Amino acid sequence: MVIPHRILEPNDFLIEAEKGGIILDVRAPSEYAEGHITGARSWPLFSDDERAEIGTLYNHKSKNLAVEKGFEIIGPKMVDMARYANDLYLSTGTNRPLLIHCWRGGMRSQSVAWLLRTYGVPTIILDGGYKAYRSFSRSQFDKPLNLAVLGGLTGSAKTEVINELRTLEGEKVLDLERMARHFGSAFGNLQQHEQPTSKQFSNDLYARLRELDAWGDCSRPIWVENESRTIGKVNLPEPFYGQIINSTCLEMLRTEEDRVGHLVNMYGDIDVSLLAGAFKNITPKLGGQHAATALDALEKGDLATAARIALVYYDKTYSHGLTKRGKVNRISVDCKGFTPSECAVHLSEFLSNYIKEKDV
User: Fold this and answer.
1) Is 249 among the catalytic positions?
2) What fold is seen in the domain 5-138?
3) I want to staple 314 with a disulfide (CB 3.0 to 4.6 A). Which of 125, 143, 154, 299 is the partner?
4) Residue range 251-258: mean pLDDT, rounded
């Protein structure tokens, strides 16, 4: 009986995964941690130390010695690996081949695929490995996207509005801050979530755009929050960032009370010492007197005063960011006094009318 085996280019490989195929990343744990195909499972053929040992032999001794060491390490693992893969294959109930990849589609993925086929498990190898996937996925950001950028001064509840837009029928939403695990400001990671690497963020962003059929069905723009080039420690792919600043931006107009109230609700449960630390970090840009007043307000539990002072810093930063996009692609939308849910409905209707008028 011939066990099916194929080698596919990145796009076809991903299509197989989207049909329900399981991706097994056989690179070392540190390679996987730096960045991996979204949804792939880490199934390392070698540990980091084992990989380093084999690499040293390959570079300083000979290829044969490196291969022999690899065999020596893999040998005792082969039975357990084959059983695990077979159980995984059977558990899907779909008869879909397991999708295997390493860094360049070389010996690691090929040897694992051989082992699994020998045991009766069909496989598909990613041609060129993760390296080819990265090259392919990054190139896709050069393709035009139909984006509707949601803007507004800090405290406008853009993140909450984005979440509400997600619930509306027909709307496509890309929540960059959720993906980056950061609210995109000096106060954006007070809950100290671990952020993904920039490479992983890029992979997750590409996966989400595929999920939204971003390059297929372009009849409705994809909502995305107006972001800077970086969100915390995460860098946006440069071509994607370029599309954000060159797309139509719908600027929510909110009252100061709307904004202060939102910030108080947002940071009310955060430890005061963390808030104080954030104010200290922006003291050079905020000014010593403003910072001192804000810290005093925090000690007194007066979050509203501290929030108003924070807006001084935020508004300067936001105004500077607006200089990167021309006035021609900025549209003001009055959302004063609206809840996030009401804002979402209003913006959705506004965008629909804008598209109709534009097409006339």
Assistant:
1) no
2) Oxidized Rhodanese; domain 1 (3.40.250)
3) 154
4) 95
